[in-house]
Amino acid sequence: MHCSILSSPSGPFAQCHSSLDPRGDHCVPPIGCGCLHEGRYRQGGERFWYGEQCQSLCICDGTTGFVRCNPSSCSEQETCRIVGGEYGCHPQPRATCSASGDPHYTSFDGRNFDFQGTCRYILSTVCSDNQDLPFFQVVAKNEAWNGLPVSITVEVSVNVSGHLVLVSLAL
């Protein structure tokens, strides 16, 4: 870090090396100098995750220009990934789908469908071979209703890692 302390009536300030301070050649408080870490400028006091799976939580000491990293990890409700251009521990994505009525469906992306088929349908399941995800599958069985051109859901089964819950409508 190339900072030099300058005196001023309002206190000591540091002149940051222009290649490290994107704000240009002006005086800033010493903590404001920032750090250069892995080719990226970090502001003084900035905390950030580092490592392939967020193994370290780091902080830039703007006064010394050094980055200090401590072993850490994401919580069980978080995953290490990039969100909005920022790498780190972020809440696991969540989405909801639903099925109701004769049957009306809302998909995970919020789209609505009305479907009158009369078979078994997979409503939701794991769609990749990612071993980190437990197997789950939700299946609905629809049948015609009273001879009308509509169907109703008469059975729903939920399978999570081989544990099966079956809910059925006795007609």
Automatic annotation (TrEMBL):
Q: This protein is called what?
A: VWFD domain-containing protein
Q: Write down the PANTHER family for this protein, in alphabetical order.
A: ALPHA-TECTORIN-RELATED, PROTEIN PRY2-RELATED
Q: Which residues form the VWFD domain?
A: 95-171
The record's annotation in InterPro entries points to: Alpha-tectorin (IPR052749), TILa_dom (IPR025615), VWF_type-D (IPR001846)
Q: Which organism is it from?
A: Astyanax mexicanus
